[in-house]
Amino acid sequence: xxxxxxDPFILAQDYPDALTGKVRSGHAACIRxxxxxxxxxxxxxxxxxxxxxxxxxxxARKLRGHTRQIQALSxxxxxxxxxSSSQDWKCILWDLxxxxxxxxxxxxxxxxxxxxxxxxxxxxxxxxxxxxxxxxDISSCIPFKHQLSSVPxxxxxxxxxxxxxxxxxxxxxxxxxxxxxxxxxxxxxxTNKGWxxxxxxxxxxIVHSTRLCNGIIILLRLSASGRDMVSNASDRVIRTIPxxxxxxxxxxxxxxxxxxxHKFQDVVNRLSWNHVAFSSTGDYVAASTFMNHDIxxxxxxxxSLVKILEGPKEELGVIEWHPHRPFVAACGIETGRVxxxxxxxxxxxxxxxxxxxxxxxxxxxxxxxxxxDIHPIEEIHKRRLDLEDETxxxxxxxxxxxxxxxxxxxxxxxxxxxxSESEEEIVAVGPGTLRRKSPGQGREWMNGVESTNDAxxxxxxxxxxxxxxxxxxxxxxxx
Length: 479
What we know:
The chain is mostly beta strands. It contains 6 helices and 30 strands. The strands form 8 sheets. Strands 1-28-27-26 form a 4-stranded antiparallel sheet, with no helix packed on it. It has a 4-stranded antiparallel sheet with strand order 2-3-4-5, with no helix packed on it. The protein starts with 7 loop residues before the first helix and ends with a helix.
């Protein structure tokens, strides 16, 4: 019924236009939608992963296992598993069926970003800080780490003219970001020298390399179809790149060409970009700005700027676009709130009553002849009984766009009061009594301090409370 109240021309709009809400549970540092788009995972600076329900904006699950800031999050294809990477040199694979830690992998350096395989949740690639990337197989309890190379594969002509100095410079390159292709056959990696390396998963060797820019490649993201890729680099330019079909049989990797389609930048203000994201259809690119509170939205067809989303008065970090709706989420760097942009849809009441019309002033209403007739009680009672005989289906869930036969997992939502807050921390102190949690409460385990709940404290409070009347009685006697 709600869809019938919305103007169909507004439903055709592909990008949001206004700030419509915000959610918060601690200080969020990164966010990520799942494939269906019904849950939003946020990683906090204290190492906690909080999963929000998009429909209710409430907390569906809290996952605690890291001790430092969460750097990146990655969902599995079916939405059951979630991979979190942190600055504590660990990656944890969570099973959202019961919220337990399925696998824990420790590295020799802080993890910059980690991405799950699109079809195999027990295989992921991790980019480490000032170290070579690793392809990690966690199908067994003991993880197998396979080191990947960051040295670009130059063309044959360049390899012949390559001197020792250039070879040493190539050997010093490190991978900053990695991402799987749609089928998971290849890994696209970006280095700190602006090179794009395509790595085959089976052989774990670089099959193609191309120079994208002269700066550091900060972020790579593929569209939902996997045919396009957007990159964010330190040269303040956002690039969209069409990706060829790498799974095509008989494809010559040396003959493929990866060319830039569009370059988006702010020529006037020379703004830097914190994070970029594709729209659900891949027709738009959104980016959050450095030292600014606006979100820029470009259209890929003509490469033009179509919208600047104005938000809160703080700088925005990670930005994510909903996989099926014109819905954008971004986390604030200062407060850690997650802000939501969407379309404000005015309701169209004429959809329920065809003869409904909006008027500017009161109009005298002329009633029909039989409009207010009094019917017998028996007839009214019979109509109510007929309506009660209709069976209502409240269990069947309508399929969401993008669902397939394999998307059968539905995460159970916890109904505990501690895990159901959104804006502030709320704790239950008694039956039917709630209060807000004091700042820093519940984080004693991070600082190595044990929480003390001694039974003597209430007694000491009583002594002070009972001693005060005795002093007043002594003073009154002296007077």
